[in-house]
C-alpha cells in the first residue's frame, strides 16, 4: 500500500509578507544605489520646469560612461554652506525618504551652465549669460519675464567642478550667491548624484527632461583664448 507524503507545511502569511517586503527593500536600495532614484522638489528655484512638491527621477547610469554636460539638470549633495542643517526624521519619514516620497534635505537641483575649464560670465551687452564667449539663448527654460541674472559674475570653472544655476533666476540661491565659499560658487562633480530625466508625480505633470538646444552650440566647446 502506497504511503501518502506528509503535507507540506505552509509558510505563515505574515512571514511570507515579511520576506516579500525585505526583498522589495533590497531591490529598491539596489536600484537607488546604482541606477535610478526619486527626489522631492522642495522649492521654486527651478520653475517653470519643476514646481514645489514635484517628484523627479534621477538617472545615475548616464554618467557611468560620460561626463556631466552643460545644460543637464542635476541633483547634487550640498557641497557645504548652501543649505541649513538637515532636519531630523523619524523612522517612518526616513523610510519614505528612501524612495523619494519625503523631502530629506541635503540635496539641491540646478542646471549645469559651465563645466571644468569654462569661463562663465554675465552679462554681455544684451544682458545674456555667456560661456566661453558664446551667448546662451535661455528663453526655452528661464522663468517667464526673468532676466538671465541680476547679479554680475565672471568665473573660470576649475577642473572637476561645475557652475550651476536655477531656472527661476530671481529665486535661486545658486553658484552666483556662494562665491565666498570654497570653489567660488562651483560644486565638485563628485557631489552629483545624477541627471534628472523625468517628472513622475503628479501624473498630470509627467514629462521627460531634455537638454536645451542652446547648449549644443559647437562654439561652446572652445576656450575664447584659443580663438583667432
Backbone shape:
elongated
> In sequence order, what are the helices and strands, one letter per element?
HEEEHEEEEEEEEE
Structural class comes to: alpha+beta
* Rg over C-alpha atoms, rounded to the nearest angstrom: 23 Å
Would you summarize the structure shown here?
The chain is of the alpha+beta class and 228 residues long. The chain has helices at residues 13-34, 91-98; strands at residues 36-40, 55-59, 73-77, 107-114, 119-122, 129-131, 134-135, 153-156, 161-165, 187-188, 192-201, 207-208.
Structure description:
- By secondary structure, the chain is an alpha+beta fold.
- It has 2 helices and 12 strands.
- The strands form 2 sheets. Strands 1, 2, 3, 4, 9, 10, 11 and 12 form an 8-stranded antiparallel β-sheet that branches.
- It starts with 12 loop residues before the first helix and ends in a 20-residue tail after the last strand.
Amino acid at each position: 500500500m502506497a504511503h501518502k507524503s506528509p503535507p507540506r507545511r505552509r509558510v505563515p502569511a505574515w512571514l511570507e509578507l515579511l520576506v516579500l517586503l525585505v526583498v522589495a527593500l533590497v531591490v529598491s536600495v539596489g536600484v537607488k544605489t546604482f541606477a535610478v532614484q526619486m527626489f522631492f522638489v522642495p522649492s521654486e528655484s527651478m520653475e517653470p520646469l519643476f514646481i514645489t512638491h514635484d517628484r523627479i527621477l534621477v538617472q545615475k547610469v548616464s554618467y557611468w560612461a560620460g561626463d556631466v554636460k552643460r545644460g543637464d539638470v542635476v541633483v547634487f549633495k550640498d557641497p557645504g554652506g548652501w543649505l541649513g542643517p538637515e532636519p531630523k526624521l523619524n523612522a517612518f519619514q526616513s523610510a519614505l525618504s528612501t524612495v523619494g516620497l519625503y523631502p530629506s534635505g541635503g540635496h539641491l537641483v540646478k542646471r549645469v551652465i559651465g563645466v571644468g575649464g569654462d569661463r562663465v560670465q554675465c552679462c554681455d551687452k544684451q544682458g545674456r549669460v555667456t560661456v566661453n564667449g558664446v551667448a546662451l539663448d535661455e528663453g526655452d527654460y528661464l522663468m517667464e519675464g526673468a532676466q538671465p541674472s541680476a547679479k554680475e559674475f565672471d568665473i573660470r570653472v576649475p577642473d572637476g567642478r561645475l557652475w550651476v544655476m536655477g531656472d527661476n533666476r530671481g529665486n535661486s540661491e545658486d553658484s552666483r550667491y556662494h562665491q565666498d565659499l570654497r570653489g567660488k560658487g562651483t560644486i565638485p562633480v563628485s557631489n552629483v548624484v545624477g541627471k534628472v530625466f523625468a517628472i513622475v508625480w503628479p501624473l498630470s505633470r509627467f514629462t521627460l527632461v531634455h537638454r536645451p538646444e542652446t547648449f549644443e552650440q559647437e562654439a561652446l566647446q572652445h576656450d575664447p583664448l584659443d580663438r583667432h
